Amino acid sequence: EEPKLKYERLSNGVTEILQKDAASCMTVHEKFLALGTHYGKVYLLDVQGNITQKFDVSPVKINQISLDESGEHMGVCSEDGKVQVFGLYSAEEFHETFDCPIKIVAVHPHFVRSHFKQFVTGGKKLLLYERGWMNRWKPSVLHEGEGNIRNVKWRGHLIAWANNMGVKILDMISKQRITNVPRDDISLRPDMYPCSLCWKDNLTLIIGWGNSVKICSVKERHASEMRDLPNRYVEIVFQFDTEFYISGLAPLCDQLVILSYVKEISEKTEVECCARPRLDIVQPLPESCEEISSDALTVRGFQENECRDYHLEYSEGESLFYIISPRDVVVAKERDQDDHIDWLLEKKKYEEALMAAEISQKTIKKHKILVSLKTSIQTKYLTSFRIKCQKILGRNTELWEFEVYKFKEIGQLKAISRYLPRRDPVLKPLIYEMVLHEFLESDYEGFATLIKEWPGDLYNNTIIVQAVVDHLKKDPQNRTLLRTLAELYTYDQRYGRALEIYLTLRHKDVFQLIHKHNLFSSIRDKIVLLMDFDSEKAVDMLLDNEDKISIDRVVEELENRPELQHVYLHKLFKRDHHKGQRYHEKQISLYAEYDRPNLLPFLRDSTHCPLEKALEICQQRSFVEETVYLLSRMGNSRSALKMIMEELQDVDKAIEFAKEQDDGELWEDLILYSIDKPPFITGLLNNIGTHVDPILLIHRIKEGMEIPNLRDSLVKILQDYNLQILLREGCKKILVADSLSLLKKMHRTQMKGVLVDEENICESCLSPILPSDASKSFNVVVFHCRHMFHKECLPVSNTVSPVQFCNICSAKHRGPGSAILEMKK
C-alpha cells in the first residue's frame, strides 16, 4: 500500500552538531527549531537544519527546552540543576540553580505578555514561578511527594505533568488539581520508559506510557454537581494498548502518530536487542485502535538506543513530525499529490499517475503532465501508455507527431497505437502507416486489430494492401493476413475480391458483406460454396432475395449437389407450398433419399405432387406408412387397410384408419381379417364400441377361442354402452327442457297485442286495412305472422274447423300464422 508519510534526515548544521555531540531534546516552533545536546549546548535552527544561533547553557546534558507561542522566549533546564528563562530578542532573563537535576521546564504559552510571566520547573517538586512586584520572581509549590517530575505540558490555562505515580492536570484559573490518571504498568522504571504527554487542543490531552495510550477530555462540571469539587473534570474517551513501548505521541487530524521503541530477538545470537523504531499512524477506537500505516525508521545508532533516547515533536501548522534520537533527527511529513504521483510512477501505474496529475495540475509543484509523459518515454515505461493523451496533447498535431517520432526512436511505436487520435485532430497518413508497418513486421494480430478499429481514410489504403500482399507471398495460408486483406479490399470497395477471400476462409462476415453491399450478382456462381459454409444462413438469404437470384437459378446451380438442393427446396416448401410446385415431383425422390421423416408431411401438404409417381417411389423403397396414405388418398382404402394389417400388423393403426374413413365395408374387412387373430379381436373389442355394434364381432368369434383380456374388453363394452345410454338420456332431458322453454316463450309472444294503424294494408286487396271513415263498422283479421286481411277478403274455408290460416303462410302447415286475432267494430 502507499505510505502515508515521507521521511528525510535533517541535515546541514544538524549533521555537523551530531558528529561531535548527541541530541538530548528538541522543541519545534513554526519559525525555527531549538535543539539541546548532551554537552549542554542549545542550537537554534531553521527548518532546513542550518544553525542560526548557539547558546552555551551548561557543561552537562540539556533535559528540556520550552518556547512560548510567539517564539520570543525560551526556557532551558539541565542535568546540573540549572534553569534559564530568557528572551531571544530582549535582555529579559532568569537564572536559577537547584541542588538536584531539573528534568522539565515549561514557560507560559503567552509568556510574552506582561501579566503571564510564569513558568514551571520540575525536579523532586513541581514549582511555579511568577514575576511580581519589582520584577521579582516568586516560587510556589504545585506538587511534591510522589517522586521526580518526568514531563510537563502547558496549554492555555491547563498544566499536565507526570511523576512516578501518574499524570495530574492543574487548572491555573482556579489553582485546583482536577484529575489524577494513574499509570497502568508500575513494573516499568519511569526513568527508562518515561511518560509522553501531548495536548491535541486546549481541552484534549493524549497520554502515552509504556504500551498504554489514553485520550482524556477536560469537561465543565454542571453547577448542580459541584459542591466541593473542582468546576472541571476529566473523562477518558479512548484507551488502548500498543504492541511496543511508546517514545512519543502527536495528533494528526482525528488520528494519532505514535513513535514506538522496538525490541526483537536476534537471529544470529538469539539475544534480545534493539530494533529500528517504528512510526505508526493509528485510528483510535473506544477500546482499541486501527492501524492505518506503520513504518520502520532507520536512524543512526538505533542498536544502542533506549526508549528514553527517542522523542517525537511536531509542528501543528504544517503536519511535520520530528523524530529525535542521539545521533539523528528525521523529519516525517504528510505526502502531497507530488509524492502520490511519484509513488504511482514507481509502481508503474502510469495511467493513474497522469489522471492524478491532471486532476491536481493547479496544486502540484514537482510534476508537469507533459514532463511526466516525456520522462516515461525516455525511461521506456510504456506498458500502459497514458490514457489521457488526448487531453494532454490536445489538438496540436505537431506535438502529437513529435511524440510519435520519440516513440519510434526508442522502438516503441506499438505502445501508443491505441491512443493515436482518429479525428479532431487527424495526423498525417505517414504517421498511421508507420505504426501499421511496425505491427505488420512483428504482430499480425495487432495489425488486424488496428485495421478493424481505424477508419480507412487515415492512411493510404493502396500502400497497406501492397504491404499485406507482399507478406502473403511468404505465408499464403495465414488466415489473419487474409482476413485483414479482405477488410482492406472492403474499405477500397473491391467487394468481389473481399468476397472471394471470405468464402475461402469460410468467414462469418460473408453474409453481412453480401447484404451490406448488395453483392448478389457476384454470388450467382458461388451458391454451392455458400451452402457448404452455412446452409441455413445461405438458404435464408437466397429465399429472402428471390427477386435477385431466382428459384430456378438456385436449383440449377445445386443440380450436382442433391443434398443441398433438398435443403433449399424443403425450406422453400415450408415458406410457401405453391412457389416451387414445379419441383414437387423432384422433391419426392429428395425426401425419400435425404429426409424421410418429412416425406409424409410433404405428401399431406402438397397439392401439386403426382400421386402415382409418389406411390411408385414409396413402394420401391417399402415405405409402408407413406404408401398407406397415398392408397387412401387415391381411393383404394381396402388395399391401404390390407397393407396396415399385413405389413404393419398394427391393429390400433388399422382401427384408427377405419375410423378416419368411416366406411362400413372397411370395418367388415377388418373384422374378417381379425376373426382368427385373438390379439386383433381384443383390440377391436376395446375400440369399435362407438362405431360398430360389438354383437356383430362377438357372434363371429369361434367357440373355444382363447382371447386375451376378454373379460376386461367385455366390461369396457358394457361401460361404453352404459355411457352412451346416459349421454342419450341426458341429451333427451336437455332437449325436452329447451323445447318447453321455447314453447312458453312463443306463447308469451303470440299473446301480445298487435298494433294496427293507417299504414297497414290488406294483404289481399292491398287497400288500407282501416277505413277512411272511422264511424263505419269494419272487420279485420290479424294473423300472428303479422299479415292482415279484411274479413270479407278472406276466402271461405272448406273445412269444418274453426281455425283459419293465413293464405300467404299456408304452405308452412300450421306455422306461426295459424292462430288468428279478429278485430270488429
UniProtKB/TrEMBL annotation:
Listed under GO cellular component are: clathrin-coated vesicle; cytosol; early endosome membrane; Golgi apparatus; HOPS complex; late endosome membrane; lysosomal membrane
- The residue ranges of the RING-type domain are 762-810
Q: Where in the cell is it found?
A: Cytoplasm, Cytosol; Early endosome membrane; Endosome membrane; Late endosome membrane
* Any GO MF annotation of the entry: zinc ion binding
Question: SUPFAM superfamilies, per this entry?
Answer: RING/U-box (SSF57850), WD40 repeat-like (SSF50978)
Q: Where is the signal peptide?
A: none
Give the superkingdom in one word.
Answer: Eukaryota
Q: Does the keyword Cell membrane apply?
A: no
Family per record: Belongs to the VPS41 family.
Mind telling me what this protein is named?
A: Vacuolar protein sorting-associated protein 41 homolog
